[in-house]
Amino acid sequence: MKSVELENIVKTYAAEKSIVTAVDNVSFSVEEGELFGLIGPDGAGKTSIFRILTTLLLADKGDAKVLGYDVVTHYKKIRDIVGYMPGRFSLYQDLTVEENLNFFATIFNTTIQENYDLVADIYRQLEPFKTRRAGKLSGGMKQKLALSCALIHKPKILFLDEPTTGVDPVSRKEFWDMLKRLKAQGITILVSTPYMDEAKLCDRIALMQNGKILQIDTPPNIVNKFGKNLYAVHSENMFQLLIDLRTFQQTASCFAFGQNHHLTLTEDPLSITELEEYLKSTNHLNTTITKIEPEIEDCFMQLMKSPSPKEIIQ
Amino acid sequence: MKQLLTFLTKEFHHILRDKRSLLVLLGLPIVQLLIFGFAITPEVRMANIAILDNAKDETTRLIIHKIENSKYFDIDRTLIKNEQVEKAFKTGKIKAAIVFQQNFQNELMHANKAQVQIIADATDPNQAATLINYASAIIMDYQAGLNQQNKLPYTITTETRMLYNPQLKGAYTSVPGVMGMILLLISAMMTSISIVKEKELGTMEILLVSPMKPWLVIISKVIPYFIISLVNVATILILSVFVLGLPIQGSLLLLIVSTVLYIFCALSFGILISTISDTQQAAMLISLLGLMLPVVMLSGYAFPIANMPFILQVLSNFVPAKWYIIIVKGVMIKGIGMEQIWKELLILLAMTVFFLMISIKRFKIRL
Amino acid sequence: MSSEIVIKTNKLTKKFGDFIAVNEITFEVFKGEIFGFLGANGAGKTTAMKMLIGISKPSSGSAEIAGFDIYKETEQIKKSIGYMSQKFSLYEDLTIRENIQLFGGIYGLSNKQIQKKSNELINKLNLQNKADKLVASLPLGWKQKLAFSIAILHDPKIVFLDEPTGGVDPITRRQFWDMIYEAAHNGITVFATTHYMDEAEYCNRVSIMVDGVITALDSPNNLKKQYNANSMDEVFLTLARGAKRGE
């Protein structure tokens, strides 16, 4: 049985004078025990999908099932068995760590003791602060507490909506390690994130933009589908280099990418020598051109409806 | 049951940990009652008044002397013409004017009857009433002194005129008014804010995606404020009996039963507000505009309903506080029983049911 | 990038009671540099930045921002810097043009200048058709680009960016960085706090704060070499793992 199934889900909202399609005919499924990621920027439709699956929102069209239960007709059943961590920090700031956990255990008709083994790993890190109010915790700690609260009733499936937004790298790393351990215990996890570098930590990902799925596959497969040679180009004057690369005849795409610019060419690999010549002629110093493996972010940009070159140069 | 208890514990944690709000919740009724309560019996000292003595004889001189020597009045100006009275009031310097008729002594001695007019600025109705009472008392005192010496009773008729607010209704509504207002404020506003807060925090999302029944959430939200309201009722009643000296004339039980009904009404209104607002700010605004203003303006608490334009009089019927204030006034001050107030109780009950029904209808099991 | 120094701190410290939020930080930032100011939650980034932009008084130490002293000349500092944060930057219920005019006015530009600058900016961002629409109606990425443009509207010497690009799609994010590059190219120093390490890779130099102290300061490449790491993420993890604070 598939843990999550969505078929042709459409969700629209009425905004001022216009209708915004938040989820545009989305279908995908998540296998049991899978760590599945929805990757995309704000406005991609991630939160709407989460809310539809957690029975908080009704889709305009389409069917969705969680663990075989329909999200509309069997919403009560689903509410009993899923764990959900909404995008915002949604715990009581004026209650202590322990009180929060106790509270969520009780409303799910269970106790901390009963399912302690599941959260033990995470909760042990929180234990020294159990009498501290949740509002006084750091971002990383809040997130661990929220995860503990979502796990306390031993859900079969976890929905985590942007759990790592606004959290520092150390806590993010720890968080993903925790997800791996939970996955090892057989819990299905559906997680969303706007950060492309987290994509490779999932079993499978759906790249999303403007309510549509651009691609669904495993991260290695998505990288393989990039289908072009990607070059990292560097010189002393990166701003001038960006302008020069974009004016180069055979440039297909060129984006600043941290220390380097990532470049694809129209007639690859023929023109690479030409590019070297060209850069020499434009007085760049210490130029390096290295062929590199694309990252998920490169793939995402390739899949996005490319804006006109003029718009980029602006 | 465990769920409910845990939820309640959490609610009390919220309330008890927010010390400042708690202080306001419990202290507000006391402050309000003391401010408004003492306004019922304002002690007026040395109020500026004007005298227009059209007679200028021995008797009027004696009465004026008596007034002047009292600690209540200070003669600010002496007028000569009737027309000056109005002008004197317009200056805002005087609170009352005393006008003696022509040939005062003659009339009193020969017709056994003379007239004095006391005019008060009733923009502040409580103060006006007090001033008139004091002035009449002084004149009556003088009259009593005269009548001791004479066989024939002389009568000085005092004609009183309230300027600007002739009926003076609404003078004794402080206690019922404060109760009507405070209970509504705490029950409706605080309940709605505390429910909406969960929406705003996002915790409502988690609660909805849990086996917790939505109505349990609501009940747990309502109970703490119900209790605080009861504490407030007790505070108000104790203060009004022992500090303001306003005894409860009617049945205490009836008063409490109607108060509980009114609290339910307010709580259900609070739930209704929570179903239509998404932010605490909105809930607060709706509560203030939708509850406080009508209660203050339309319940007869601050302004007499009888003086309102027809439209507002009609509108006032939809304000629960109006009916509650009628009940409290009746039971507390007049000492009337169930047979006179059953209609008002029924109206409150109907309103409660109405609010609850809309709330249930509007309550969303989803976002 | 030139060798002209625009930010210079010397043992800058901020204490809250016994708690030392920022502990004797000393560093320099050059004109036209893109400087990444990194640190974990609670490392003291925000407190340090508040001192640099003149809204929080240091407990000890000294600093000069654009040549002005952070104790005595906070007003001059405020005139010579721009500021953009992710949380608040623009008034959503004003139109694009109104926002530009408002901030132009706040920074004391003349009406003529404001007029000229708003037209330039609107043309540059390709917002001609949207100039009179509410900012609320713009997609997040456009808001950020607009906010950045407004932050440098008065040609400040330094622009401070507080976690600027969260949640935007990769291409819009690139466009945003293009603008930052351009500003730096034109001599504006960019001082950005972030805890996203891929953003750090765009900077000329980065500093990493741990428990109130700057523990590393160099170009991303040098740091990666120094810590034998493949990415800034790894560098950061190595350094910040030892953090005591942040709970």
Low-confidence stretches of chain A: 307-314
Outline the biggest β-sheet of chain A.
6 strands, mixed
CA distance, first residue to last residue of chain C: 38 Å
The general outline of chain A is: globular
Query: Residue-averaged pLDDT of chain A, rounded?
Result: 89
Number of helices of chain A: 11
The fold-level CATH name of the largest domain in chain A is Rossmann fold
Strand arrangement, major sheet of chain C: 6-7-8-3-9-10
Q: DSSP helix count of chain C?
A: 9
Biggest sheet of chain C: strands, sense, closure? 6 strands, mixed
Widest sheet of chain A: strand order? 6-7-8-3-9-10
Work out the radius of gyration of chain A: 23 Å
Q: What is the H/E string of chain C?
A: EEEHEEHEHHHEHEHEEHH
- The level 1 CATH classification of the largest domain in chain A is Alpha Beta
Strand coverage percent of chain C: 25-35%
Mean pLDDT of chain C: 88
Structural summary, described in words:
The complex is a heterotrimer of chains A (314), B (367) and C (247). Chain A contains eleven helices and 14 strands. Chain A starts with a strand and ends with a helix. With 314 residues, chain A is of the alpha/beta class. In chain A, a hairpin with a 2-residue loop joins strand 9 and strand 10 (212-217). In chain A, 33% of the residues lie in helices and 28% in strands. Chain A has two domains: 4-222, P-loop containing nucleotide triphosphate hydrolases (Rossmann fold); 226-303, VP9 protein domain (Alpha-Beta Plaits, 2-Layer Sandwich). By secondary structure, chain B is an alpha/beta fold. Helix content of chain B is 67%, strand content 10%. Chain B has 14 helices and five strands. In chain B, helix 2 runs parallel beside helix 9 (214-243), helix 7 packs antiparallel against helix 11 and helix 10 packs antiparallel against helix 13. Residues 165-171 of chain B have low confidence and may be disordered. Chain C is built from nine helices and ten strands. The radius of gyration of chain C is 18 Å and the shape is globular. Chains A and C meet through helix 5, helix 6, helix 8, strand 12 and helix 10 of A and helix 6, helix 7 and helix 9 of C.
The gist of it:
The complex is a heterotrimer of chains A (314), B (367) and C (247). With 367 residues, chain B is of the alpha/beta class. Chain B is built from 14 helices and 5 strands.
